Structure prediction request, 435 residues.
Amino acid sequence: MSSFVIEGGHRLSGEIHPQGAKNEALEVISAVLLTAEPVTITNVPEILDVKNLIDLLRGMGVGVERRAKGEYTFTANHVNEFYIHSADFVAKCARLRGSVLVVGPLLARFGSAFFPKPGGDKIGRRRVDTHIEGFMRLGAKCAYDTAKRAYNLSSGHAMKGCYMLLDEASVTGTANIVMAAVLSEGTTTIYNAACEPYVQQLCRLLTAMGAQIEGIGSNLLTIHGVKSLHGAEHRILPDMIEVGSFIGMAAITQSELTIKDVSWDNLGIIPECFRRLGVKLEQRGDDIYIPAQKSYEIESFIDGSIMTIADAPWPGLTPDLLSVLLVVATQCKGSVLIHQKMFESRLFFVDKLIDMGAQIILCDPHRAVVIGHDHKIGLRAGRMTSPDIRAGIAMLLAAMSAKGTSTIDNIEQIDRGYEDIESRLNALGAHIERK
Prediction:
């Protein structure tokens, strides 16, 4: 198990480019299974979760050519149908959260797929009902295989389009159902579909491959099934979570920073949420400039009540940034209620922040009140263990702000979502060592 050793108290300066979006990468890379023709994807983040998914595709017989850093061509013309039904394949899928996204393409193209309970972050209950119920509405049959500990889905190459109202606006559920529907006979209408930029990007790739999808960017998608898809080229968006993480790093270290090529139009409410914490930032073309500030004052609502920042389906705030916003708030002036609605275990890492001197009241698994120190009382260095990707990067922010030297263990969790993070931050003036 690797660790980061962080010497805190150093200010950052300069420019940094965000990596390609992790969540989009997992979706569009899975989509290459829908065609036998080559699909080229650029701006691929070379992080642990994405590498593991690419290795999973290789094991399935997909041809993978790394043409340059972040540029891959995938050719799924010789998928090993025996392997994708093997216990080894199902076991590998169970260890990788992103593997849920291969189920829709495999079901659509090959008529069957196994759906194990996925791995990934331990952040509370993550239902798979939306995925499976969507497949069954398209005509797939589902049975539980006790030996493989996975759901066995079978369509017999005869899925048919239908109307469905999703029970929740699940991002991966929407992506999975869309990928299954593009090769289903007839028309599929998905209401209460997730409409995050990453789902929009998946739909654009599928359209470039020959799919017929209407309503991209809305919560009502109409998919007219086609018999086959062809090859295409696609570029992944910058990662909005990394952009938000860098804004938070600038604020908590009182640094001046420029984040380049952020795809501002796809950031949604993220810049405004940081502004509510008193963080000044400017849009300069497609860049974000964050000036150094002595103080960051948290806004109140118009009636004077305490500011609340909560996650919500797009275009609301992504839950992946609440951990970063919470850590930033510990050094702002004022108080804020952080309400994590979607996952019940993501706030438990605040115990470590309290040990570091943060003033946080954990009300319940979903809500925490942060009383900021206004940079007058710094956080203390400490030893922490990263429980998941987003808590890990939040801990890194805290350590960069803290007085003294901190250690973060289990940084493989951070590596799952952030590419070469210590080298990129050290180039800005951070002092982070991997051990």
User: Anything to note?
Assistant: The longest helix spans residues 48-60.
